Amino acid sequence: MTTPQDLVDARHLDIGWVAGTAPGRPVTGVRAAERLADVADQKSGRVVVLTAGATEHASPYELDVATRLAATQECAALLFVGDGDVPSTCRRMAERTGLVLLATPATTDIARLIIRLDRLVTTTAAVVLERLAAAHAAVADDAASADELLARAQDALGVPVELEARGDEATERRTAGSVVIGDQVIGVVRVPSDEAAQLALPTIAAAVARAKQRELTRLFAETQTRAELVAQVAFAESSHLPSLVEQARRVGFRVDGHHCAAWLDFGELDAADADGLAQRRRLVDRVELAGLHRFSNVAGSWHLAAVTGHLLVVGSTASRLDRLVAELRAGVEHLVAEVTPDAGGAVYVGIGGPWEGVDGLRSAVTEARVASRIARDKRRSGRPVMFDGTGIRRVLAELAASTTSRKVLDEVLAPLDALGPDRASQGVETLLAYLDAQRSPTKAAATLHLHPNAVTYRIRRLVPLLDLDLDNPDDRFALHLACRVRVAG
């Protein structure tokens, strides 16, 4: 049963405690009294609302009499409309008799307050269904904001309806009130343990989720447009860079700042698997949306773009360079924790940078992809790998980021590319393992998990296609470098 204490705890009612012993008698109904004499006609358990007209010119003695009448009839409470300046004699009488004295501001809409109170204390099935239908109708507006929907639901139900934002926890148990966007819980709608409110909770949460989705779409539309340009700048041919950079500047991207990048590799895709491609698209879209939400409150400029079934994250700043990579790492770790179960447990993450300017952006992205390949080779799923920043990997990353260098080295591997992407990839993998092993079939076989005879057979088939002499140091170096850069890119 509802008590006067429950009315005070319901913050949306704006009712304050004046006197009496908590929690008070169970409330069975609500009535308004325009005159103090009307208190004599009330029933046990009622909350009697004394309007401003009833108390405005009343003397302390008249208020004492009204309080005594309410106590004699075992009313649950007297609710004063106004400042709650009740005579001390009334307060002492309430304390002795079990009556509760409450107050609400003079500006309160009394008609609405009485409706809310009545809904709160009435528990018949017909009323529950009526309130449930009212709540469903209140949130059936696809143009309303989340805040508007919550306010309408609160008015319809007559109880508090609030959205509690979700924290930074990697996982959260789903409830009827969970607000879910792209399978990510971004908040929880909270209502009291009221039958109608509990029944309406899933519908309210779903409506709020749709509203939040619309808000995020509007909020990040411009950011996603910039992200597409950032991805184009990162991968474009050199001849296309000037126009792309100019476009990026026009839409507000800080091309000349410092940049770091993360590459989230979700594994290989089979172009012939329509269901697999659709599933990957949904996964990447969901992670992208979660990332936009995650990075929206992080210092710096952040852009996320889907690229060939994987996800590129670029962080940029004109200052606070020391925090950029740390924020990027924390953000992608959060995303990976969110999606790893749905990605089949395989998400390989690489982080590159920070570097300055357009060339720095391209280098950071290349480093991130190289680092993700290292994560894949070491089977470090879900744990970001930082590009080491020293030695040959740095040189390879610079070569991979250079369009001119890539073009020259791609010419070396052109005969393999003519065989098709799958056979070319296998050929590069075999040649790289063979050259890394200083042309030892046995060592290369251990890397490739093949029999040494299989490696020898492949090498004898591949080398003639390339028209190279592996006994010649220059030819051997050119092929080794081409394979290394191809794998790095």
Automatic annotation (TrEMBL):
Residues 428-485 form the PucR C-terminal helix-turn-helix domain. InterPro entries: CdaR-like_regulators, CdaR_GGDEF, PucR_C-HTH_dom, PucR_C-HTH_sf. Pfam families: GGDEF_2, HTH_30. Residues 243-373 form the CdaR GGDEF-like domain. Belongs to the CdaR family. This is PucR family transcriptional regulator. The lineage of its organism: Bacteria, Bacillati, Actinomycetota, Actinomycetes, Propionibacteriales.
